[in-house]
Please model this.
Amino acid sequence: MNQTTPLLLVPGLASSHRIYAPVIPALWRFGPVMVANHIRDDSMAAIARRILSEAPPRFALAGHSMGGYVAFEIMRQAPERVAKLALINTQARPDTPEATARRRAHMARAERGELRAVREEMFPELVHPSRRHDANLLRLVHAQDEDVGVEGYLRQQTAIIARVDSRPMLATIECPTLVLTGDADNTIPNALSKEMAEGIAGARLVILRECGHLPQPEQPEATAAALSEWLRN
Model:
């Protein structure tokens, strides 16, 4: 990647700049790095529009989990501005009725002041089984909960529930694309990453070993290596 091409990173649900902190030092070598703020709007279209209004004219784009949903919307609105695309532990499919029902239950609890409890209960699903008792990772999750806040979380969930099916657009993506996932992602199974990689011409699929839904803090070196190769080539 040309050293003047900025990198724009989009976090996931209830996630902030902190999720990318373990890999930014390696990525920064390739050019300017920005982390998008995606907590201010309640639809994917509005989130993408605001991010695009604050982004450089052209950039490499990486989205993690919900950030991948935002990345797809950015590709709909301004594909000519995206030099490269990385889809990290995400999917192209819309919400299922079951997922939406679960989200609404979590939203109701968050409104009652239970966001921290909701996230703590979800933690075992977010990480590799060997990290289910990792206090440092749990602290990271809670720190991000505080960064996003209840109102931000509710807006994000509203946007996720209403997102459209991105599978039809996969064949239209022409920029160099990396699809990255963990071998033990219980939140978004890596079969859905394989589906995206097969749908995007020339996409490279990387499945990290001993990794759940949070590859940046779970496998920082391997994640940074995969993203660095994507940026370099």
